[in-house]
Amino acid sequence: MNAKEFALMIKSGIHPVVTFTKGIEELDGYTEAGMRARVASAEEKHNDMYVLKVDYSEFDEYNQQYESANYYDPKGNPTITARAAGFYKERDQIYVGISEELPFVVTESVSLRCLRCSNNPGQLTPTLSGWRSRASTRTWPCW
Fold this sequence. Notes:
- By secondary structure, this protein is of the alpha+beta class.
- It folds into two domains: about 5-105; about 110-143, no CATH class.
- The chain is about 20% helix and about 30% strand.
- It contains four helices and ten strands, in the order αβββαββαββαβββ.
- The strands form three sheets. A five-stranded antiparallel sheet has the order 6-3-2-1-7.
- The longest helix has 10 residues, at about 110-120.
- It is globular and about 45 Å long.
- The model is unreliable at about 110-125 and about 130-143 (pLDDT under 50).
């Protein structure tokens, strides 16, 4: 999925949880592969870029395990994390090219399944705890 396709999903009201991949380390910022965030919005800028507003707050503790010491101390050694250096923010922006592959995967698929449900009436119905076949009362968790 490229940034433009992802932005259309966000604009439809879906705010998924994403897990960042190695590609995130090529972009400016402190986010590292393995970290998670919820995408709050996507805004097109200059017809060639999207600004994704992400919220790390619900994964703050989880993300600490992926923080690496890549900020330099007074002796010139990379011994400080972004958090310790004062650069970590619970809410931030990520800039991605409009046709680039995204530097993350969607890990909370309930939103994607619910989007599919509305496109396939008669098959699945979203519920608070997962999704349900309209032909059954059984509910399965979204994963």
